[in-house]
Amino acid sequence: MSALLHGDLGTSIVSSGYSVNQIIADKFPVSAQVGLIAIVFSCLVGIPLGILAAYKRGTAADRVVTTLSSLFSSLPGFLLAVVLLYAFGMWLHALPTSGLKSWQSYILPVAALSAGPASVLTRITRAALLDVLSQDFTRFLKAKGMGTRYILFKHALRNAAIPIVTTLGPLTAGILVGNLVVETVFSIPGLGSYMVRCVSQRDYPVIMGTTIFYTTFIVAILLVVDIVYGLIDPRIKLDE
Amino acid sequence: MAFGSKQTTAEVDTALVRSLQKVEAGQPLLQVRDLTVTVHARKGDYDVIHGVGFDVRTGEILGVVGESGCGKSLTMSAVMRLLPSNLETTGGTIAYRGVDLARLPERDMEVMRGGDLSMVFQDPMTALDPLYTVGSQMLETIERHLDKHGQEAREVAVDYLRRVGLSEPEKRMDQYPFELSGGMRQRVIIAIALCCNPSLLICDEPTTALDVTIQAKVLDLVRDLQRQMGNSVVFISHNMGVIATLCDRVIVMYGGRIVERGTVDDIFYRTTHPYTTGLLACMPTLEGPREEPLVPIPGMVPDPRKMPLGCPFAPRCPHCMKVCRQQVPPEFDLGGDHACTCWLCAARGTSGKLLQTPAVAGPLQKEAPHA
């Protein structure tokens, strides 16, 4: 216990001689790299699509985006990963199926990882924006002569940012630490796939160590989210 | 100020503003004719405003009274083109200084809104964006409509905050709406609405959400500023007392129509329409005997989907006649500014002449079996 408080997570029983700290230091950067690309990609796709759906609400574009986002957010990750792997890797032979040797090999895992978060972000962004746009101050902004786009980007988006950031936090933590299914399917040597292997080998110190690491990471991300709240909303202050 | 403010270039702005006609004092600034607003609903469209027509003259305060759901706010929202998306102005003209607002492209309408035409809403607690300072919300309006930026725009903003009676206007500029009380926020909103020197200010029950002591102060403020700036004000209220102290002329609305119009004296001392009489009867007074109970108008405002066939007020009217249930009354001219849309005027043999031919709109006849 005192070792834990000093940051020592113990040693692996299966791969003898390796400390848990060393394993995390080896594997986490691989997961984090893929994860970081995936989360940036999800934001770049999900948030603009959400804005589009809210701006064009009720139109065909809105319906297409909403349908696709519900489809992808309810699709299980392993199914999407396997389908992508089969379609682009085995069938079309367009993209590599395993490892992380070239930039092409990032495409499939990133796609599989970001589909879910991107569609969740789309839905949250759309819902939050529509909520803001139905509020009284939007009407007053219109009465002041402000254009729809100006209201959307300057006022509505910032007001909608709180729910978006709230969802984005845990999503980021989950993706960065490594998705066990996606990493296993695409044979990525990350923390997620390693943890699955340790579970089957009953390597308890590693399981416990990675769990503690994962938990700490989520707590840290949530702290960042709380700090970001303060930047978005002047009513939330960190001091006092 | 990245978006929006650059959407409309200064040239577009001035071209439209220059095309606005100068209106002499006492002449109509806004002339609304046959305004019809339709609700698009799944079960079929129906009208909520039935051919409303009225004038707003320069430098006057026009009161609009009626119960909730009579179409007061909707009429003025239609003038501002701020109707909710399922409502549409389907008929009539809104001539404002020679420009028909009903047919103005949306981009030009944005130039008019907040610039020459302004509106203040009911609830000051929710009318400001909570995430931006009072100053930034004032400056965006000033930079949008007046060709002023930076320090110059800031001076205008501070000046108007002072004019609406806020203490320490410089400090208020950097405060957020949540740091201000309801009355202060309503002052800020009035300052925003007035800072581009509009010719017409529409106040949609600006005091309803405030407590009584603040109400009186806001009313005084509206009147004082109107006198200083000489603009026209449309004041929507369901409080007859407020209307009596504040307004020059009054229109009384019921069921999406104007039932009586006239000067404040016409409405309060020469009351003609039974609905206006009803509104006055349920107003408490300080002088009268205390034992006398207030007399409410029986019944409810009709559902716009199930409008009665004839006069909309007929089912609640103590003087209802046979003709009232069959045909919508025309407007009878009672001399001067006074006019009343009631068959009683004809029955009493009023010397007035018919102003409008009876308009029996389609939807009314369609709904007839329900009535």
Task: Give me some keywords for this one.
heterodimer; A: 240 residues; mainly alpha; MetI-like fold; 10 helices; B: 371 residues; alpha/beta; eight-stranded mixed beta sheet; 19% strand; disordered C terminus
The residue-averaged pLDDT of chain A reads 85
Residue runs with pLDDT of under 50 for 5 or more positions of chain B: 1-11, 357-371
For this structure, the quaternary state is heterodimer
If you consult CATH, what is the topology of chain A? MetI-like fold
Per CATH, the architecture of the largest domain in chain B is 3-Layer(aba) Sandwich
| Largest sheet properties of chain B | 8 strands, mixed
Could you spell the SSE succession of chain B in H and E letters? HEEEHEEHEHHHHEHEHEEHHEEHH
Structural class call of chain B reads alpha/beta
- Main pleated sheet of chain A: none
So, the CATH homologous superfamily of the largest domain in chain B? Answer: P-loop containing nucleotide triphosphate hydrolases
| The number of domains of chain B | 2
What's the N-to-C terminus distance of chain B?
A: 54 Å
Give the strand order, joined by hyphens, for the main sheet of chain B. 6-7-8-3-9-10-12-11
Order of helices and strands of chain A: HHHHHHHHHH
What shape does the CA trace of chain B take? globular
Number of strands of chain B: 12
- Percent of residues in β-strands of chain A: under 5%
Secondary structure: number of strands of chain A: 0
Q: Specify the helix fraction band of chain B.
A: 25-40%
Ranges of chain A where pLDDT stays below 50 over 5 or more residues in a row are none
What are the SSEs and their pairings?
The complex is a heterodimer of chains A (240) and B (371).
Chain A: H1 2-5, H2 20-55, H3 60-74, H4 77-91, H5 104-133, H6 136-143, H7 148-177, H8 180-185, H9 191-201, H10 204-232
Helix pairs in contact in A: 2-3, 2-5, 2-7, 2-10, 3-5, 4-5, 5-7, 7-10, 9-10
Chain B: H1 10-19, E1 28-39, E2 46-57, E3 61-65, H2 72-80, E4 87-96, E5 99-100, H3 106-112, E6 117-120, H4 134-145, H5 150-163, H6 169-173, H7 182-194, E7 200-204, H8 212-229, E8 232-236, H9 240-246, E9 249-254, E10 257-263, H10 264-269, H11 274-281, E11 332-333, E12 339-340, H12 343-347, H13 362-366
Parallel strand pairs in B: 3-8, 3-9, 6-7, 7-8
Antiparallel strand pairs in B: 1-2, 1-4, 4-5, 9-10, 10-12, 11-12
